[in-house]
């Protein structure tokens, strides 16, 4: 087994979910010898929210501390949606710790005023006991594509259950942190590492043109568009995502930590 086959992989989850969204990829990567680090973001899974003001800087620094505690060297950093935004902030705040980058369903730019306002409105409504059930019912199915909604109702049911059990304060905190994230265009232009941008062909939240622009910023990046998938490809098309991560690991060619 080559050294690249043992590169540690960090998998960062999407909003309203937790580390378990990456279970298929975790098992597959561990089966071929990679250390896999799948943290819950603060407020999700078993991790307390804490009292820090909403900021992805805080989340990125949480990850840096986790890697320090594990003694991990440069990693393949993969993030889905919120996790991808965290990855971009980590890349900026902690240079030299990322050997490869996989961004799933993310844009490089900051939110427009309209999108930011929508996030802040979500953060307000999700903390209302009256508004929350309808908000979750309306927004959560949009996280997957039409094919998944039609053919894999189990995935939609799982997402609805995860959103319903998530701490409303954590959902609001995360949306506010995402809304305030900076533009990452310059960070990606400066990134000298193997990278892949994975987009769902049926993604209703991040459009195809945005994914193309993000991939074009990366000097060693490529765009992969996954048919039959929406915003959450690790759950919708798990085998395809695993193949892309393994391909990226082969590109890294770095010694194990």
TrEMBL record:
Domain of life, source organism: Bacteria
Listed transmembrane segments: none
Domain AB hydrolase-1, residue spans: 9-242
Gene3D superfamilies attached to this UniProt entry: alpha/beta hydrolase
MF term (GO), any: hydrolase activity
InterPro entries given in the database record: AB_hydrolase_1, AB_hydrolase_fold, AB_hydrolase_sf, Epox_hydrolase-like
One Pfam family in the UniProt entry: Abhydrolase_6
Keywords in alphabetical order: Hydrolase
Annotated protein name in UniProt: Alpha/beta fold hydrolase
UniProt lineage: Bacteria, Bacillati, Actinomycetota, Actinomycetes, Kitasatosporales
């Amino acid at each position: 087994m080559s050294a690249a086959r043992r590169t540690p992989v960090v998998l960062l989850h999407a909003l309203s979910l937790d580390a378990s969204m990456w279970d298929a990829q975790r098992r597959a990567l561990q089966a071929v010898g990679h250390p896999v680090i799948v943290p819950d973001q603060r407020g999700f899974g078993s991790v307390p929210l804490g009292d820090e003001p909403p900021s992805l800087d805080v989340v990125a620094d949480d990850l840096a501390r986790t890697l320090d505690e594990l003694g991990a060297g440069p990693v393949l950093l993969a993030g889905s949606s919120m996790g991808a935004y965290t990855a971009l902030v980590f890349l900026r705040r902690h240079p030299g710790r990322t050997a490869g980058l996989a961004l799933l369903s993310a844009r490089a730019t900051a939110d427009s005023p309209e999108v930011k306002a929508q996030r802040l409105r979500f953060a307000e409504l999700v903390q209302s006991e009256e508004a929350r059930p309808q908000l979750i019912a309306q927004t959560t199915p949009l996280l997957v594509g039409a094919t998944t909604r039609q053919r894999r109702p189990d995935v939609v049911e799982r997402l609805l259950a995860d959103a319903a059990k998530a701490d409303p304060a954590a959902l609001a905190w995360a949306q506010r942190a995402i809304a305030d994230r900076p533009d990452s265009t310059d960070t990606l232009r400066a990134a000298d590492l193997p990278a892949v941008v994975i987009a769902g062909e049926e993604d209703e939240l991040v459009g195809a043109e945005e994914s193309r622009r993000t991939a074009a910023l990366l000097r060693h990046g490529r765009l992969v568009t996954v048919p039959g998938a929406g915003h959450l490809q690790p759950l919708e098309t798990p085998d395809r995502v695993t193949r892309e991560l393994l391909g990226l690991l082969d590109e890294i060619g770095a010694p194990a930590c």
